[in-house]
Every structure is written in structure tokens, then in C-alpha cells.
Write a structure and sequence with these properties.
Elements lengths: L11 E9 L5 E4 L6 E4 L7 H7 L7 E6 L13 E5 L13 E5 L5 E9 L3 E5 L9 E11 L3 H9 L1
Antiparallel strand pairs: 1-2, 1-3, 1-9, 4-9, 5-8, 6-7, 7-8
């Protein structure tokens, strides 16, 4: 009889997960889609979400309600940026629309349009779940061998 591996630092993990608000409003879910595969410590999840996975094995299911600080924290007012409408050459922003923005380093980030005037749009670059408690539900499908580089990275951080 084979023994199931527990999730440890660096483990290769395949799981289904969902994030929702405590009132049941869904934010994201892989349960009706492809599962997510990642290595523990690769920053796929917030640290408190990752901590909740340690010790789980294939077949385990868990649902936790995370406080605002355990999830995505409080909104940071410095992440609200006023942008001229002339910067939106490819699209007309709409209130509460989630848009992708290119950063100077070539990376992309998401922002939510919070306000629109005749000349500017106020874009919120906080995580959409910042300021909210979050219900984190997981079903572990597989736990693989740890990646030694991920173990070293989590020891150093």
C-alpha cells in the first residue's frame, strides 16, 4: 500500500480551488475547469493560503475563511491612479471594467476602472479582493515530489 505524500515546502501540487466572498459571491474557481498545478513557494497563492495547504494529501478537501489581512489585505490608496483618457487608445473604459495594463518592465497587471470624468479615468490597481474576507476552498488532486530549488527559495525567504 503506497503512502500518500503530504504537501511540504517545494511540493508539486495539483488542485482545484475557489475563492469567494463570505456571502457566496464567486471570484474565481477551477472546479469546472482545468485544475491548477504549481510548486509550493512559487507565489501562486498568498502566503496564508499556501500555509493552509501544508500537510494536506491527495483527496483532501478544505474550506477556510481568511480575514482581509490573511487574504489580500486592505486596499492601498497609492494604487489608485488617475490616467488621462487619451492613454486608452485601444478601448473605451467603462465603470467597474477590469482591464489589463502594461507596466514599464513589460509585465502586465490588472486594474479596475473606478471613476470616469470627461478627461480622466481613476484606475484601481489593488487586487479585486483587497479589503474583503475570502472563502478559500481546495480539493487536492495530486502531491508530487518537491522541487529542490523551491525548498531552498522558501528557506531563504
Amino acid at each position: 500500500m503506497s503512502q500518500l505524500r503530504e504537501i511540504i515546502p517545494g511540493s508539486a501540487v495539483t488542485l482545484h480551488f475557489s475563492l469567494s466572498l463570505p456571502d457566496g459571491t464567486p471570484a474565481i474557481s477551477t472546479f469546472d475547469d482545468e485544475p491548477l498545478s504549481f510548486y509550493m513557494g512559487d507565489k501562486t497563492f498568498q502566503p496564508s493560503m499556501e500555509i493552509a495547504l501544508y500537510g494536506l494529501k491527495a483527496g483532501d478537501e478544505q474550506t477556510l475563511t481568511l480575514t482581509t489581512n490573511q487574504a489580500y489585505g486592505e486596499p492601498d490608496p497609492s494604487l489608485l491612479q488617475e490616467m488621462p483618457l487619451s492613454d486608452f487608445t485601444d478601448a473605451n473604459p467603462e465603470l467597474d471594467q477590469i482591464m489589463t495594463f502594461s507596466l514599464p518592465d513589460g509585465e502586465e497587471t490588472m486594474g479596475v476602472i473606478r471613476e470616469i470624468t470627461d478627461t480622466h479615468a481613476m484606475v484601481d490597481f489593488n487586487h479585486p479582493l483587497a479589503g474583503h474576507e475570502v472563502v478559500f476552498t481546495v480539493k487536492i488532486l495530486d502531491v508530487g515530489l518537491p522541487d529542490p530549488t523551491m525548498i531552498q527559495d522558501s528557506i531563504e525567504s
